[in-house]
């Protein structure tokens, strides 16, 4: 059992995430490398000052531009849009690992009368005409449809037939997202873009336990340290507390993960065994501690388990986008501000792309944090960089 102080636990997570010290991830190659490290980054279509996946990368990747992620997805085809931790973006090389997911989707699709005929019509149209969105597909009517993307199996909705059939074929893996125009998705045949060896690859797991082990270890690697608790970092993985403990035990006994004890916290933590050199560097104080200021995404992998963030940093963050305006403590779309090893506050910013202005609506500093000259200089530089990321040429600050 490796023992860490809370400070060391924080330093290890930050170092693993590439959020402290000199930038480890640079340019488009760095963006791809980070997604491979995290396994997946969450996609959300809301774009106030960048979409969530873009925000996740801009905080870690030196010189990141939004076009880099689009290229990795829709030109290079090194990444794909698909489910994992909710809607996510992950490496195309992981396609075989989600084969059972696609098989479950296809099995569920057979339970809907008339869906097979709609699928044949849609595929014939796409074969002849190429990428299509739901408003272009000439499939009329409405159907009662279950969104297999959510695996819940307990609800149906009345939906536009064209949208439903495209979503079903996408979840089946027959279609992939060809590109997006804003939040509108255009679909095309997966076989046109993914390597045939990926599409033909056998399911890599011997049983469900092996699949669970892979998914859990992947999430541990995404965060850096995770504990043996019902964690939102495991969202999208179907397992109860007993299964989680069994999986963690299996991963530990097989040498995939290492147990870690953090001072003042009884619950055991785990990290990937491959991260032991980094862990030792933190223990010996031999890692790059150069302080950076970064604005984090609301669904950033580091923030997947907000209870863990509270336990280690005493920072309580809630994404208030779905909170009624009169009940919000902060703002509609606020981003945590990380400076060095500490969360120092939140920022609410919105990009006006017509005027090319980034509006900084508010900044809330944590109790005990004072707006010193040094802090203000770091804020100004980070806001300027954030404005460039949003393709804005000017910054306006309210209040």
What does the model show?
The chain is an alpha+beta fold. Among the domains are: 96-193, Orthogonal Bundle (Arc Repressor Mutant, subunit A), CATH 1.10.10; 293-397, Aminopeptidase. It is 36% helix and 22% strand. It has 13 helices and 18 strands. It has helices at residues 6-17, 27-38, 52-58, 66-74, 99-109, 115-129, 161-172, 196-200, 208-223, 241-253, 276-283, 306-313, 373-389; strands at residues 2-4, 25-26, 41-42, 61-62, 79-84, 86-91, 142-145, 157-160, 175-181, 184-189, 226-227, 257-262, 269-272, 293-295, 334-339, 342-352, 357-365, 394-397. The protein has a five-stranded mixed beta sheet, with helices on one face. It has a four-stranded mixed beta sheet with strand order 1-12-13-11. Strands 3-6-5 form a three-stranded antiparallel beta sheet. Strand 5 (79-84) and strand 6 form a beta hairpin. The N and C termini lie far apart (50 Å). Mean pLDDT is 94; it is low at 148-158.
- Determine the number of helices (DSSP H or I, runs of at least 4 residues): 13
CATH topology of the domain at 293-397: Aminopeptidase
Indicate the radius of gyration in whole angstroms: 22 Å
Indicate the proportion of strand residues. Answer: 15-25%
CATH class of the domain at 293-397: Alpha Beta
Shape: globular
CATH architecture of the domain at 293-397: 3-Layer(aba) Sandwich
Share of helix among residues? 25-40%
Q: Find the structural class using helix and strand composition.
A: alpha+beta
The tally of beta strands, per DSSP, is 18
